[in-house]
From TrEMBL:
Endpoints of the signal sequence: none
Pfam families: AXE1
Domain Acetyl xylan esterase: 2-319
Protein name (database record): Acetylxylan esterase
SUPFAM superfamilies: alpha/beta-Hydrolases (SSF53474)
Gene3D superfamilies, per database record: alpha/beta hydrolase
Organism, scientific name: Kitasatospora terrestris
Recorded coiled-coil stretches: none
Domain of life from the UniProt record: Bacteria
Amino acid sequence: MLTDLPPEQLRTYRFDGSEPHDFDEFWTRTLDTARTAARPPRLRTTRTGLIGITTYDVTFSGYDGQPVRAWLRLPRHSPRPLPTVVEYLGYGCARGPAWLPTLWSSLGYAHLVMDNRGQSSPYGAADTYDGDTAPQTGGVLTRGLTSPEHHYYRRLFTDAVRAVDTVAELDETDARRIVVTGSSQGGGIAIAVAGLRPGLAGACVDVPFLCHFRRASHIVDTYPYKELTDYLRGRPTEIEQVFTTLSYVDAANHAARATAPVRFSAALMDPVCPPSTVFAAYHRWGENTGGVADKAIRLWEYAGHEGGGTAQLASHKEFVAAITGAPTRATRRSG
């Protein structure tokens, strides 16, 4: 069943949330501190058995210089420097095994998959702690809601920006051709990075989480947004403080600062990330920089939180090739 507004109303729906007056100062200070504390990344070759792909176990400096893990996969026979895809993961997801996924590296891109600090699920636990706290299942959305300085997503968004910083500095990658991508939580992170780090070649954002928190908490009764409902039911006097904190991480506010070409998707039957919250971020993309942006959104009518699945991925593949220049294969010498 449809979970939100009909398509004609989604096309005109606009974000009606708040934006803090010190939003830019807050994030500039946060990122400056992380970059000052950063150390050179460590890359260790990992055996995977994959033919044609070299995989590195990467540790880079994220929030406040804290170590963050990632996989970096490089195609062996594509000419350098490589266009790069930086991928962010869904809520509760971890970077997983070293040999998955391989689509982007198989197509000739450098591909970095960032771990989600402190997150875990039945599908695996992150290799990255949240400071001194081991990964947990669920609950990170409400971690530190009393202030933006302590909120969990301040740390995760900083990690995500530093992931782009890290690949941009590698000899084998082209800093001018970096695309960020993600679905659900990963989509929300990709929006935030596009707003926080200029110079990206593009972004692919699918059924994003972390958009227009207050509306989402009003119209869905599913996790992760239901974590906010659970939290506020027991703390009714903290409602305004909670949504003030969340305004610093709301992807709709970050989208207003983004300039890179972007392709969004939303699903009409999504019970997790309702499409109106996605459109709230989409319509703000580029708003603070003149409102002129190369952006488009695909609306999937008979889809839930899986969105367009492989059909959407195929569309992203063509988009990324167009904005970065499709990678070419070096000819292997015979004999």
